[in-house]
Design brief:
Structural class of chain B: mainly beta
Oligomer: heterodimer
Order of helices and strands of chain A: EEEEEEEEEEE
Largest sheet of chain A: 7 strands, mixed
Radius of gyration of chain A: 13 Å
Shape of chain A: globular
Distance between the termini of chain B: 41 Å
Distance between the termini of chain A: 37 Å
Largest interface: A-B, 21 and 18 residues
Number of strands of chain A: 11
Number of strands of chain B: 12
Shape of chain B: globular
Helix content of chain A: under 10%
């Protein structure tokens, strides 16, 4: 099946620094990617929809200046957590939609962010 | 807006037991419905899906039927295995609508932890 990768899988950073997370679709082109946040023992919360070549669409309550999304190519979207604080510590998951073949979302393995 | 409600877990079963995880939804129109599974340390994987009323999705012995009259999509398996231990998420995908932005977005239930003992 289709594969979506994320990098890094884990990152620990100091408060105030910025962290970039990459999401790649490995064997299909994804014009649309989604970024989710998952808190411990809770469900996934959609943060934003990333569209190739245009601005991301953020869900209500998500700060677009804090969570910068760039979708510069059909296989890569990045999420940058700017000026990270401990409350940003979470599990971030991306998904990529394969419109052409199966119209199914494929999920990355997630990135565990810990802000000290 | 759209919402998904799953039965609360965790669910603990013995091997070969029957499994049901309830899922109900609220949505406008006719959404597509999904079950995703997340094994320990891994990302979400699509388990099965149904795109219209009365459709039955099935995979790996799991089944779920899209019931519009009861707005439900309950997950069932006749005989679970230890390897089925995971977190299961019910989800729906918004449908196109005039000026709508929900198409393609997934709304997830809270997840149900399943543990199967030998």
């Amino acid at each position: 099946g289709a594969v979506v990768s994320q990098h890094p899988s884990r990152v620990i950073c100091k408060s105030g620094t910025s962290v970039k997370i990459e999401c790649r679709s490995l064997d299909f082109q994804a014009t649309t990617m989604f970024w989710y946040r998952q808190f411990p023992k809770q469900s996934l919360m959609l943060m934003a929809t990333s569209n190739e070549g245009s601005k991301a669409t953020y869900e209500q309550g998500v700060e677009k200046d804090k969570f910068l999304i760039n979708h510069a190519s059909l296989t890569l979207s990045t999420l940058t957590v700017t000026s990270a604080h401990p409350e940003d510590s979470s599990f971030y998951i991306c998904s990529a939609r394969d419109w052409g073949r199966t119209d199914t979302q494929y999920f990355g393995p997630g990135t565990r962010l810990t802000v000290l | 807006g759209n919402s998904v409600t799953q039965m609360e877990g965790p669910v603990t079963l013995s091997e070969e037991a029957f499994l049901t995880i309830n899922c109900t939804y609220t949505a406008t129109g006719y959404p597509s419905l999904f079950w995703y599974v997340q094994y320990p340390g891994e990302g979400l994987q699509l388990l099965l899906k149904a795109t219209k009323a009365d459709d039955k999705g099935s995979n790996k012995g799991f089944e779920a039927t899209y019931r519009k009259e009861t707005t439900s999509f309950h997950l069932e398996k006749g005989s679970v295995q230890v390897s089925d231990s995971a977190v299961y998420f019910c989800a729906l995908s918004g449908v196109p609508s005039a000026g709508g932005t929900s198409y393609g977005k997934l709304t997830f239930g809270q997840g149900t932890i399943l543990t199967v003992h030998p």
